TrEMBL record:
Gene Ontology CC: cytosol
Its job: Catalyzes the oxidation of 5,10-methylenetetrahydrofolate to 5,10-methenyltetrahydrofolate and then the hydrolysis of 5,10-methenyltetrahydrofolate to 10-formyltetrahydrofolate.
Domain Tetrahydrofolate dehydrogenase/cyclohydrolase NAD(P)-binding: 184-334
Reactions accelerated catalytically: (6R)-5,10-methenyltetrahydrofolate + H2O = (6R)-10-formyltetrahydrofolate + H(+); (6R)-5,10-methylene-5,6,7,8-tetrahydrofolate + NADP(+) = (6R)-5,10-methenyltetrahydrofolate + NADPH
DNA repair listed as a keyword: no
Similarity annotation: Belongs to the tetrahydrofolate dehydrogenase/cyclohydrolase family.
Molecular function GO labels: methenyltetrahydrofolate cyclohydrolase activity; methylenetetrahydrofolate dehydrogenase (NADP+) activity
Protein's pathway: One-carbon metabolism; tetrahydrofolate interconversion
Subunit structure: Homodimer.
Protein name: Bifunctional protein FolD
NCBIfam families xref list: PRK14186.1 (NF010783)
Lineage: Bacteria, Pseudomonadati, Planctomycetota, Planctomycetia, Pirellulales
Domain Tetrahydrofolate dehydrogenase/cyclohydrolase catalytic: 46-165
Length: 337
């Protein structure tokens, strides 16, 4: 053998919703690598719409069972301040998704210049309304010449038991401690997408780019938790939380087995920043002209990655699916059923 080490490899083909996703090479050393790249395939496209439809169907079934048990339909109230076109679309889509799942979806609209006091008064009213199980304030809040909202004060005012976005300090703290009440919708959607695609990040290096309260920070926290703390799907990753001030961002990204981009800068993650065979999750939704693009330069990234989410049709649809899930969870929590 000339002193050379041998490498016994078992190749296991894996798939995502019936489509071949690549191969796992199981070596003697116990190393488990996704090496679709070596197999000379372009990345599998992770279909967020399909996974979201599956989760929404499961939630609809659970809602029907809950109501059949004598409970009123869960009620989600969205608060939309101003007329931002994207926010209007998201709120409308949330209402439609609620209706399809058997959830009572309501929307309160306030003018952009309603002001902090009026918005705080509405939150106080919704907190005490026993018919309302979930409350969300659509973000971002508008800024006008006359009015600037204190977003933190508003999110802090939402009753944590009705906080289906999981943005309140109590729910953030519970997640941090590994005993979440509600999981924030976008990171939870990503965990579901990975888990349901049989993509494990346990023991792997994950780099989350972007430290927002909505995605980056909770995402990092969830992936680093022990098995079971944030659901059975994905945990035990070694996580790096990178951001705009990270030194040599490209090499930090390139070191990751799974790269999650949530920075809000169109196509800033280029192919040279991706480790061959890495899983790439694109959370960005950027409007460039009349096109919607992610934070990842998709066409070049898919030649390097083993699996990648598209924009649109990747992470976005999962956000609303997980919101329905949280609304049902809130209704169950409040009814004690
Ligand atoms: N209170 C909240 N505000 C915001 C959240 C949130 O989770 N809670 N997240 C985003 C907006 N958002 C939901 O509110 C959201 C964004 C995108 C999608 C989505 O399905 N995107 C589609 C593309 C849709 C399009 O054409 O614009 C996709 O990616 O395929 C759903 C929900 C900020 N605010």
């Amino acid at each position: 053998m000339n002193g050379e080490s041998t490498r016994t490899i078992t190749i296991k083909r894996i798939s995502h919703y019936g489509k071949p996703i690549g191969y796992r090479h199981l070596t003697e050393q116990g190393c488990d690598e996704l090496t679709q790249h070596e197999a000379n395939m372009t990345a599998v496209i992770l279909d967020g719409k399909q996974v979201a439809a599956e989760i929404r169907a499961e939630t609809a079934k659970e809602v029907a069972d809950f109501v059949a048990g004598g409970a009123p339909p869960p009620c989600l109230t969205a608060v939309l301040v101003g007329e931002d076109p994207a926010s209007q679309v998201y709120v409308r889509n949330k209402a439609r998704a609620c209706e399809k799942a058997g959830i009572d979806g309501r929307t309160h609209r306030l003018p952009a210049d309603a002001g902090q006091d009026e918005l705080m008064a509405l939150i106080a009213e919704l907190n005490t309304d026993t018919n309302v199980n979930g409350i969300l304030v659509q973000l971002p809040l508008p800024t006008t010449d006359a009015v600037r909202y204190d977003e933190r004060e508003i999110l802090d005012a939402i009753d944590p038991l009705k906080d289906v976005d999981a943005f309140s300090p109590v729910n953030v703290g519970l997640l941090m401690q590994g005993r979440p009440r509600f999981l924030p919708c976008t990171p939870h959607g990503i965990v579901q997408l990975l888990g349901r695609s049989n993509l494990s990040v346990a023991g792997k290096k994950v780099c989350v780019v972007g430290r927002s309260d909505i995605v980056g920070k909770p995402m990092a926290m969830m992936l680093a938790q022990k098995t079971g703390a944030c659901g059975p799907e994905v945990a035990n990753a070694t996580v790096t939380l990178a951001h705009s001030r990270t030194a040599d961002l490209a090499s930090v990204c390139r070191d990751a087995d799974c790269l999650i981009a949530a920075v809000g800068r169109p196509e800033m993650i280029t192919a040279d920043m991706i480790k061959p065979g890495a899983i790439v999750i694109d959370v960005g939704i950027n409007r460039v002209g009349d096109k919607l693009v992610g934070d990842v330069a998709f066409d070049q990234a898919k030649e390097v990655a083993s699996a990648i989410t598209p924009v649109p049709g990747g992470v976005g649809p999962l956000t609303i699916a997980m919101l329905l899930h949280n609304t049902l969870a809130a209704a169950k929590l409040q009814s004690g059923r």
